[in-house]
Each structure stands twice: as C-alpha cells, then as structure tokens.
Amino acid sequence: MSSSAELRARYLDLVRDSLIGLLGEDPALEIRPGGGRLPFDRGARDEGRDWPASALSMIGAKRMLQLQHAAEFVIERGVPGDFIETGVWRGGACILMRAVLAARGVRDRKVWVADSFEGVPAPDGARYPDDAGIALHRFEQLAVPLETVKAAFARYRLLDDQVAFLKGWFRDTLGAAPIEQLAILRLDGDLYESTMDALTALYPKVAPGGIVIVDDYGAIAACRAAVTDYRREHGIDEPIYRIDDSGVHWQRMATVPGATGDGSRGTGSGGTASAG
Length: 276
Known about the structure:
Low-confidence stretches: 256-276
CATH topology of the domain at 59-251: Rossmann fold
CATH superfamily of the domain at 59-251: Vaccinia Virus protein VP39
Helix content: 25-40%
Distance between the termini: 21 Å
Number of helices: 8
C-alpha cells in the first residue's frame, strides 16, 4: 500500500469509527419514545442494533464499512453518478460518502441527503397495509432538523457544494429532484411507503454497475415487502447480498438495455458485499 493510500485508509477508519460512536464509546438510547440511556455495547454497535446517544449514525460498523467499500468500488470501476441516502437521521452515512469523495479527490459527484428532517411519517395503513401498526413516527429521537445535519457536515469540514439536501416527504421530493444519474442508492426509509417511493423515483436513475443498499431489509418486514414487490414488478433478479442481520445490497447489472460490458461481478463475497 502506498503512503497516500495508507493515509486515506486511516482517515476513513477514523471517520467511520467517529460517526458511529466507537471512538468515545458513546452510550445508546433506549428504543422507546422519551427513552433514557444505556451503557455502550460494542457488539450492538458493530451490528447497528442500537441508537447512539450522540454519534451521527445508527447503521453500525458493518453497514458503515460496506458503504465505504461500495463508494470506493463505483469510483474505482468508473460507474457514473452521484450518491444518495433516503432517510439520513443525523447524517452520518452521507458524511461518510462525502468523506470518501474527499479522500479520493473526486470533484464531479454529489452526495444527496434526502429526509423529512421531521422524523418518520405516520403510517397510512389504508393505502399501505404493510405499514399498519408501525409506530416509528412517535419517536422524537428520529426527528433531526436540517440545520442540525448541516452542522454535523460542517464539523467534519465536509459541507460544500458537493452536498445537496432534499427536505420533505419522499413522495414530494424525490421525483422532482434534479438528479441525473446515481452510482449509489442507499435506502433507509423504514416503511413500505417510503421504500417504495424511493425505489420508484430513483431506481431507474441507478447506472449500470451501481449499488443499491437497503438498510432495513432484514429488520422491518414492511421495508422488505416493498423491495420484494418492486423487484418482482420490474423483473429485477440480481442477487441480493447480506451485509448483517438488517442491511442488504445488490448491484444493478450492466446488461440492462443500452449498456455494455459486465458490471455484475465484484459485489459478491469479495467486492462490496462483505463488511465483516
């Protein structure tokens, strides 16, 4: 490894560990409305099974490392397009994606930060039966204002013109967003409705060879149902790879109409799939 590559790796290691609260062993929040704090649990933090009290991401060490690998993969392979996360909480995963661009000296891609910045919407069980009974809208811990997320980017010196914010419910913002192409689509909307809205608006913009990551696939049945329905309705049969008990990803094949080459490899047990 060259000295510059080693420095880049060390920088990104520190950014990841800081964003999920490993460096300071940040305690966890009780996962209930108005909950208190729990002692730091390294195992839970690795798997993204707790909500850090102060740190900027709850996706855990494994999903965070996979996201870094995915960003590096599309840069190294020349897969065109921007990066986006739909559902960002305190912004940690998006900060990591911007850090990868900075570490690599990439100036021609943006990170799109899409969220209501008001928490999770109340479920519409009549239109989306899979969401009935999900009460995440009651968790005030999930409502992080836009200015708070911007301030987090600024603390990492990563708030610049390569970061774009989309504020509002996904049904209102994603379809109209001026996004031409995506190399990474990371979904963290929890609900069937939010997941389906994001896939409908953004999956067609994922470039051949691009990576689709679904944070809640293994943890929330409604999210998994939306992914299953969308893939079935659109004939998507690329293999889904597990990151940990919750997160999964797949690579959009390069053999879609009009594409050339084979971008289907490199994301299995080698490539970007394994974060552990």
